[in-house]
């Protein structure tokens, strides 16, 4: 006969504190609100801005609506032939592209700056915690001490880590959440190293110093690469401007001169010798449109190349792409 009978699930639930149940229910409801479709409904703005690509959910449909409205208006007012003979459709396409990609370029650049600020501050944070741990402080106490310091964009995450530890969240679990919240490969790698050392019961201060040195070297190498590749970014941008300048010279001098010479030859021959009017057959509008397309395509893809070479990501070059696209469009629309 068993003296102590194991409580069943109902008895365990009935013995719990109602206030504790209420707190647990609130925590569970908060957790559900941050997962799946509920996360989007609960805070759509945060969902759109937490990942730069998410903003395309809004910008692409808006751009499509603008394109369709412009397309229908152009065909209705000027006829279907205007799609070939007029530059209105080019203007609509450029505006559509700018509307679709400008938010992505903005948020991607902002995210890149956030990651850079965090990664620059990581070595100092790890070194400070390691120094306090070596002086005899426990890791939670050391983190609590440095939480009042200034680590730029990393400060709010350190304070959140300190709060979780003060709420008796296990250190390993809290440090893993810290790495996930930072959301950078360098942070995840360093945090994983620290968590495993803490689990194994090793000398965590040495691991923290190693993580600090690794982070420092990573940031230095990234800065060195960026500085070394900057000259190639400048070359790409200058090449586009030279390309645009050459096209402007060709359009404003060579083709115009050919057209005028052809018209003069045609007039002097009485228009009876079409073979002599080679220059007069030059369709300047068509040539300008072809050159404008070439310049805009060159500018857009040169920007992507500049981003890939300078910052290691083609999406980082979207800001250059949009700027050069607009330069080419404005140049041909108003000046060339």
TrEMBL record:
UniProt membrane topology term: Multi-pass membrane protein
Compartments reported by the entry: Cell membrane
Broad class of where this protein is predominantly found: membrane
Taxonomy, superkingdom: Archaea
Keyword 4Fe-4S found: no
Pfam families named in the record: T2SSF
One annotated Gene Ontology cellular component of this protein: plasma membrane
Domain Type II secretion system protein GspF: 125-251
Regions crossing the membrane: 53-72, 92-109, 230-250, 318-335
Keywords: Cell membrane, Membrane, Transmembrane, Transmembrane helix
Protein name listed in UniProt: Type II secretion system F family protein
């Amino acid at each position: 006969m068993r003296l102590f009978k194991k409580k069943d699930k109902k008895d365990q639930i009935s013995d719990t504190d109602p206030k504790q149940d209420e707190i647990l229910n609130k925590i569970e409801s908060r957790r559900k609100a941050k997962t799946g479709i509920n996360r989007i409904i609960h805070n759509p703005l945060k969902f759109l801005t937490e990942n730069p690509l998410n903003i395309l959910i809004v910008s692409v449909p808006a751009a499509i609506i603008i394109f369709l409205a412009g397309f229908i208006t152009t065909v209705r007012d000027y006829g279907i032939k205007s799609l070939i003979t007029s530059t209105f459709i080019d203007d609509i396409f450029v505006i559509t592209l700018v509307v679709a990609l400008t938010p992505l370029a903005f948020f991607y650049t902002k995210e890149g700056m956030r990651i850079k600020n965090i990664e620059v501050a990581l070595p100092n944070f790890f070194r400070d915690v390691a120094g306090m741990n070596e002086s005899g402080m426990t890791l939670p106490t050391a983190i609590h001490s440095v939480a009042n310091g200034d680590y730029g964009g990393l400060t709010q995450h350190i304070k959140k880590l300190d709060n979780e530890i003060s709420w008796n969240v296990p250190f390993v679990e809290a440090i893993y959440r810290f790495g996930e919240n930072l959301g950078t490969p360098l942070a995840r790698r360093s945090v994983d190293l620290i968590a495993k050392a803490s689990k194994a019961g090793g000398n965590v201060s040495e691991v923290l110093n190693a993580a600090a040195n690794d982070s420092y070297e990573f940031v230095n190498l990234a800065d060195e690469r960026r500085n070394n590749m900057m000259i190639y970014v400048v070359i790409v941008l200058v090449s586009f401007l030279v390309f645009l300048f050459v096209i402007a010279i060709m359009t404003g001098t060579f083709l115009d001169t050919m057209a005028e010479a052809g018209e003069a030859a045609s007039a002097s021959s009485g228009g009876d010798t079409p073979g002599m009017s080679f220059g007069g057959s030059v369709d300047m509008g068509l040539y300008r449109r072809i050159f404008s397309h070439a310049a805009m395509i060159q500018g857009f893809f040169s920007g992507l190349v500049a981003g890939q070479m300078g910052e290691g990501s083609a999406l980082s070059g979207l800001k250059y792409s949009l700027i050069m696209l607009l330069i080419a469009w404005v140049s041909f629309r108003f000046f060339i």
